[in-house]
Design goal:
With about 375 residues, the chain is α/β, with parallel strands linked by helices. The chain is built from 11 helices and 17 strands.
Length: about 375
């Protein structure tokens, strides 16, 4: 991208646990740090993508305070290979997860304080893969211009299938335009509804990537979720901050932050605002949010099995096995997910992914 009039600050969200990939993803080693087949992590991929947009390495990282040093080490390794930067890496540390609305508002308050309320934030989850980097850069260029005009910009992916784990955006018709007004946001519909959306050709997957300024975001959030903004402001004011030659770190106050409503930015803002638009873009985008998405990172054999680690198969079909530290053998099974870690063993039918949340709730209650 050419140098913009207002700085563009990538905001990397990596505070979630990634519970849908339990037991591989856990609080001490969540999804952004998981190693991909090429040896990189999802966080590394996101950082590399951020540096395409912000070559001078001005970055904002929102993560759990327990993951600060692990995150900082990863950022340093990626940024250090980029020559001639005057980078500033900033951190917002959450004492607990409060969903994306709180994380984005907190980062907007920091960008406002450190840069300006007209700086452009590019909000990116750290658990996505994007294959088409040139298309991504072009979509960001379009979104940047819209954000400087006071729009809240979402990135929409042409759907390849009916997925119940994604949000959807209904775009108003905009012939010949690189962006569209938004008619509605829909959060994770059921399967028949998702099938109808895809068949209509009127909906896009919501990539969870947003481009906006602190000024527009905070103004609209004050309009639709003032109690959330007030609670986050309190956590920021009462938090502890420090600065160094390479950036800053803000640890949000735990007592105040636990009072913040836990709600997604989609529900809190985008479902209500009249200042949103969407940039349709085919990015080769993948949300690594389910075991099937994770399994698809590995090549399948002739029986549609995908494996990672020490695995022996006999008469096994359409099964994913992750077993890096011990031998796992499967005989006469099909359509399974088998994840064998040092901490736990998961055996599930591939259709059972939605029930994993219920399983984790039971495990949490059992341990508490």
């Amino acid at each position: 991208m050419n140098a913009p009039d207002q700085p563009i600050i990538p905001v990397l969200l990596s505070g979630g646990v990634g519970s849908r990939l339990w037991p591989l993803s856990c609080p001490a080693h969540p999804k952004p740090f998981l190693t991909l087949p090429d040896g990189d992590s999802l966080l590394v991929k996101t950082l590399q993508r951020a540096l395409l947009i912000q070559p001078n390495a001005h970055l904002m990282n929102v993560t759990n305070r327990e993951l600060y040093f692990q995150t900082k080490d990863t950022v340093r390794k990626v940024v250090d290979v980029v020559p001639d930067t005057d980078g500033q890496q900033h951190y917002v540390l959450e004492p607990c997860a409060r969903n994306t609305a709180a994380a984005i508002v907190a980062s907007a308050l920091r960008v406002q304080a450190l840069y300006s309320d007209q700086a452009v934030m590019l909000v990116m989850p750290s658990d996505h893969l994007i294959e088409h980097e040139a298309s991504f850069s072009e979509a960001v260029r379009i979104a940047y211009d819209l954000a400087t005009e006071g729009q809240l910009v979402a990135f929409g992916i042409p759907p390849k299938s009916a997925e119940v784990g994604f949000g959807y955006i209904k775009a108003a018709v905009a012939t010949g335009s690189p962006f569209s007004a938004v008619e509605r946001f829909v959060e994770k519909p059921d399967l028949p509804t998702a099938q109808a959306y895809v068949a209509s050709g009127e909906y896009l997957w919501n990539a969870g990537i947003f481009c906006l300024t602190p000024s527009t975001l905070l103004s609209e959030m004050q309009r639709y979720a003032p109690e959330l903004v007030e609670a986050v402001q309190c956590a920021v004011r009462q938090g502890e901050s420090g600065h160094s030659a390479t950036g800053s770190c803000l640890e949000l106050d735990a007592g105040a932050f636990t009072q913040v409503p836990s709600i997604s930015i989609d529900h809190a803002l985008f479902e209500h605002t009249d200042k949103s638009c969407v940039v349709p873009c085919d990015l080769g985008w993948r949300d690594i949010g389910t075991w099937q998405a994770w399994a698809n990172l590995w090549e399948a054999d002739a029986q549609c099995n995908q494996v990672h680690g020490q695995v022996q198969l006999l008469d096994t079909h359409n099964t994913f096995i992750h077993s890096p530290n011990a031998l796992t053998a499967a005989v006469g099974v099909k359509d399974l997910i088998i994840v064998n870690t040092d901490e736990a063993l998961l055996i599930a039918h591939k259709d059972a992914q939605p029930a994993l949340g219920q399983l984790l709730t039971q495990l949490t209650h059992k341990r508490s």
